[in-house]
Design a protein that fits this description.
about 1000 residues, alpha+beta, Protein Transport Mog1p, Chain A, Nucleotidyltransferase, domain 5, six-stranded mixed sheet, 38 helices, 23 strands, about 50% helix, about 15% strand, globular, disordered N terminus, disordered C terminus, coiled coil, signal, CHAT domain-containing protein
Length: about 1000
């Protein structure tokens, strides 16, 4: 067998383009191949904020003396240069320094971007003479620093953001080696890739294709899938320009890109690329393209937990790779085979070894242990035959063997194999995600064998890596760490408090909700701004630029074109400019965005009468941790994620039936969930006025106020012991979200109190049929015609308008409540925004894939399209609101069957747009109850109560008055419980919340 001859245009990727590197789930399923190393820069110490910096070779700068070299400095993960340092050839006497600082080519170049005060004579590190210039950026007015120094090898010119001054000094004085601080390779490569990728959509530089492919492989090996995506996306764009967008030989970067998207759970985006690859792979010069497509599809199916489909694809890939190998490699021989002269066979051999390892995991997971052992043994034998297998590939094989052994209950053997894998990763990928994952797996096995001390050592080493790299793990990997810490606390009472604080920090390593990312962006924007609207706007421009790029990339994946590439190039440039501005305006933004909060940080923002409860669900058990009065309390629950989801679904079914009416409420699930999660911590929570709840997984699907703290003994549910009677409740996606939202204490600075919208006018049947044609969307058309008017929302909005003293121009009702009215209402100037209308989540209308709110269509509209304001439209709003009231249907409800991530896309969109708090509804609301809750909450909030206390007071009012001044059925949770507070809203720690929440007499 001989490989096909590659066409001339493909010789830009000789053997390199024939090597595999994929990603999958579990993380060890990445296919690692040898790759050249991409230049990633050298350590340059830390900046004034303590963030590690890298120096890379930079572009030449204009200067009046010959330039010996230019370095650009990148700090704290920013991909825009924090500083530029140029070394010149020439004299370093005082006159030369004065001349360079006062005028000339460099100073003219500098003055184009910044305005500087007169140079001041000073010295820098090492005692070198220097001239310092205090400057201000012309774009944004942010501080900037420039200097001219007498370096050890000639004059040095430097400028950058203020926090980079220490790094500029060290580079100018040649002291980097002594002060250098290393960064993980993944972070360094990510930086290099972002810089290369930013240029790949505007240039035909095929010379960087190999560098991008190598960097993509390195990043994939390090399980940094987002950065690998950037590398492969840029490589694909370059290759498409050379070969054409329909050339079959672009399939290699296309498939790598698809798998790195799948590894981030972006499965729909990956499927678009797989579909493109199906038509290209059979015609590619690379004979491994077809089995590689099946291989990668199998890994994507594994990520989606479609294990039967995964096995089918992997067996197809196994046969395809085997057909490309000599028969001597398909038997039972261990003798080494020299494949150096046949790169196709080498690729096929590594691919076959990886497919069999991946298949082994699927088989072990689906209850076929004997076949799983056989497949991993075949994988090992192939690697021995090929010889010279990369270290990460051997480490992943050991890790798979360890996980298979663990699934069979062989904990001792599993621990040994996982520890061996961890040692391999410590050499092949030190300080990166693969090592951390393996350390946690080995810690779990040591904990299972009773070796707690060894388990804790492994967990702590892995946790250090995760925090340094700002990574998270599945909850099932983190729970054994909490088990070990609790056991250690029981054995060492003198260390119990410190160990439980460690438990609290460890639990945050399992943050898994997409909501966290959206909310953290919003809260980090608030925290970074410190109340400065200019800073907030700068950060928002960067976030918008990131969102715009992602949208363009998705558009390009479906239909690449030169026009889209041009738009991407412009968007890349806009993003670089936005990031440069934020790096100067708010250098701490990335730390806020990526950090997890420790005990001290969370404890510092809790008010005296507050408690925080965070939960972590595993397959068969859960941990609940509470912070109260400077102490951590812990409880282990025998409640798995599936059981929790079942209880949540049962609660919701008892609250609202399939017809949208009050259900037959069964108290048992609500009490069972309370007993499992909160009752063990009841003593610690007693007397707390506000409970800050951090739910996990399906627990996001209910408002916690309807949990029952005891049995129901009266048919009048208003007398039942609901949790809301004990505490006001705030729901947050993560403890860090709470810390950043409260970090500045800054409330909205918006000048207007209120903006209200309600009583929409529904689209006509004819308009709906044009938007939902019967041949494709008949069911949607019928459902959409059921979106009738909500006349009660008019009274609701008018009542709140009156309470808050707003004017007629602050509300839009009926036919005036349109999408255009929302855009024109200057929403950023309003502290409270109230939307009383229908809301739709994905799945309710299959032809409307985004969550949406329903508004009035504009007069004379040909169809109903303008009546649905989608989440992507809401992302574009610029808000500065303490509270958004989404008094609609299901705005907080589960976005898929069985719960899961229940905070809807609408809620996330509003957080992203700038809300500090959301009052959302978990199911369809009753008009009368909604008007009472919303208006009474606003009355209490106007009186000084916090949003949490105000909502609690309104809900207790309904419960207390049910059967008295209100109908008895209003005690049913259907009426009072749908509203929940997500995020802080308005805070009033100086007000006695219990008094503010007291029901009206």
């Amino acid at each position: 067998m001989s490989p096909r001859r590659l066409p001339p245009a493909l010789r830009l990727l000789p053997a390199l383009g024939l090597l595999l590197a994929a990603c999958s789930t579990p993380p060890e399923d990445s296919f690692v191949a040898p790759a050249q190393r991409a230049a990633a820069g050298e350590p340059a110490g830390v900046d004034a904020k303590g963030e590690a910096c890298l120096a890379q070779r930079g572009n030449p700068l204009p200067a009046d003396l010959p330039v010996a070299g230019v370095q650009e400095v990148f700090c704290g993960g920013w991909t825009s240069a924090a500083a530029r340092v140029a070394t010149l050839r020439g004299s370093t006497d005082a006159a030369t320094l004065d001349q360079l600082a006062g005028g000339g080519l460099w100073r003219t170049w500098l003055d184009q971007r910044v305005t500087c005060a007169a140079p001041q004579a000073t010295t820098i590190a090492g005692g070198y003479a220097a001239r310092l210039l205090a400057c201000t950026r012309k774009a944004g007015g942010w501080p900037h620093v420039a200097m001219v120094a007498a370096g050890p090898h000639g004059p040095v010119l430097a400028d950058g953001v203020a926090t980079s001054t220490p790094v500029m000094e060290r580079l100018a004085a040649g002291q980097v080696t002594a002060a250098g601080a290393a960064q993980p390779r993944s972070a360094a490569l990510e930086l290099a890739v972002r810089r290369m990728a930013a240029e790949s959509f505007s240039a035909n530089d095929v010379s960087r294709f190999e560098t991008l492919m190598a960097a993509g492989r390195d990043l994939n090996q390090l399980e940094n899938f987002a950065a690998a995506e950037d590398a492969y996306r840029a490589a694909l764009a370059l290759q498409e320009r050379v070969l054409g967008r329909e050339d079959p030989n672009i399939v290699l970067p296309l498939l790598h890109l698809a798998l790195n998207l799948a590894a981030q759970n972006r499965l729909d985006e990956a499927e678009v690329l797989f579909t493109r690859a199906e038509g290209l792979a059979p015609r590619a010069a690379d004979e491994t393209a077809v089995p590689r497509l099946a291989h990668y599809r199998g890994l994507a199916a594994q990520r989606a937990h479609k294990l039967e489909e995964a096995a089918t694809h992997l067996r197809e890939a196994e046969a395809g790779y085997a057909a490309l190998l000599p028969s001597s490699m398909l038997g039972t021989s261990d003798s080494e085979v020299n494949l150096l002269a046949d790169p196709t066979a080498t690729t096929a051999a590594f691919g076959l070894a990886e497919v069999r390892r991946n298949l082994s995991r699927v088989l072990a997971t689906t209850g076929h242990p004997a076949e799983a052992e056989a497949k991993i043994a075949e994988s090992r034998r192939l690697l021995r035959q090929v010889g010279n297998a990369p270290g990460p590939m051997i480490a992943r094989t050991l890790r798979t063997e360890g996980r298979n052994a663990a699934s069979l209950g062989r904990n001792e053997a599993a621990a040994r194999q996982l520890e061996a894998a961890a040692r391999r990763f410590a050499v092949a990928a030190p300080g990166e995600r693969p090592e951390a994952v393996t350390l946690f797996l080995s810690g779990g096995r040591r904990q299972a064998t009773g070796r707690r001390s060894e388990a804790l050592s492994a967990f702590r080493a892995g946790a250090d890596i995760l925090r340094a790299r700002q990574l998270a793990l599945p909850a099932t990997m983190v729970l054994p760490y909490l088990d070990a810490l609790e056991a250690e606390a029981a054995a060492r009472p003198d260390q119990a408090e410190a160990l439980r604080r460690e438990m609290f920090a460890a639990a945050q390593l399992a943050q898994r909700s997409n909501t966290v990312r959206f909310v953290q962006q919003a809260s980090a924007r608030i925290g970074a701004s410190g109340g400065d609207q200019r800073v907030s706007e700068a950060v928002r421009r960067l976030q918008d630029a990131d969102q715009a790029l992602r949208d363009l990339f998705a558009e390009r994946d479906a239909a690449p074109s030169a026009a889209i590439d041009a738009r991407i190039a412009e968007a890349q440039q806009a993003r670089a400019e936005a990031e440069s501005e934020v790096a100067a305006a708010a250098p701490g933004y990335r730390q806020l965005l990526l950090a997890t909060a420790d005990f001290n940080a969370v404890n510092a923002v809790l008010a005296p009468q507050e408690a925080l409860v965070t939960m972590l669900l595993g397959r068969h058990s859960a941990w609940v941790l509470a912070l109260r009065d400077g102490k951590v309390y812990s409880a282990r629950a025998s409640l798995g994620e599936a059981e929790a989801a079942g209880l949540v679904n049962a609660i919701r079914a008892g609250v609202i039936d399939q017809n949208g009416a009050p259900g037959r409420f069964d108290p048992a699930p609500a009490q069972a969930l309370y007993n499992a999660l909160l009752k063990p911590l009841e003593a610690a929570l007693d007397g707390a006025e506000t409970l800050v709840v951090v739910p996990d997984g399906p627990l996001l699907g209910i408002p916690f106020g309807l949990l029952l703290t005891g049995p129901v003994t009266d048919p009048n549910l208003g007398k039942a012991p609901f949790l809301i009677k004990r505490h006001g409740i705030v729901h947050v996606p993560s403890p860090q979200t709470l810390v950043t939202l409260r970090g500045t204490g800054a409330a909205s600075s918006a000048p207007l109190a209120y903006g209200g919208f309600g009583d929409f006018s529904p689209p006509t049947p004819a308009q709906l049929l044009r938007s939902f044609p019967v041949d494709r969307c008949a069911a949607d058309a019928r459902l959409a015609q059921g979106l009738t008017r909500l006349p009660g929302t008019r009274r609701e909005v008018l009542e709140v308008q009156h309470l808050l003293g707003a004017g007629p121009r602050d509300i839009r009702l009926g036919t005036e409540f349109t999408a255009a009215a929302l855009r024109q209402a200057d929403l950023g100037s309003r502290r409270i925004l109230h939307l009383a209308t229908h809301a739709l989540l994905p799945g309710e209308l299959s032809c409307l894939p985004e969550p949406s709110i329903v508004v009035s269509p504009p007069p004379g509209a040909p169809d109903a399209n303008a009546a649905f304001v989608k989440a992507s439209d809401l992302l574009g709003l610029k808000l500065n609101a303490d509270l958004i009231i989404l008094s609609a249907c299901n705005t907080g409800g589960p976005s898929g069957a069985g719960g899961g991530e229940a905070l809807s896309g609408l809620a996330r969109a509003f957080f992203y747009a700038g809300a500090r708090g959301l009052m959302v509804t978990h199911w369809a609301v009753n008009d009368d109850a909604a008007m009472l809750i919303v208006s009474d909450s606003m009355r209490r909030q106007q009186g000084g109560a916090s949003s949490a206390a105000a909502l609690r007071g309104a809900q207790r009012l309904i419960l207390d008055e049910a059967g008295l001044r209100l109908p008895a059925e209003f005690g049913h949770p259907y009426y009072w419980a749908p509203f929940a507070l997500i995020g802080d809203g308005k805070r009033a720690p100086q007000v006695n919340a219990a008094a503010a929440a007291a029901p009206r007499g």
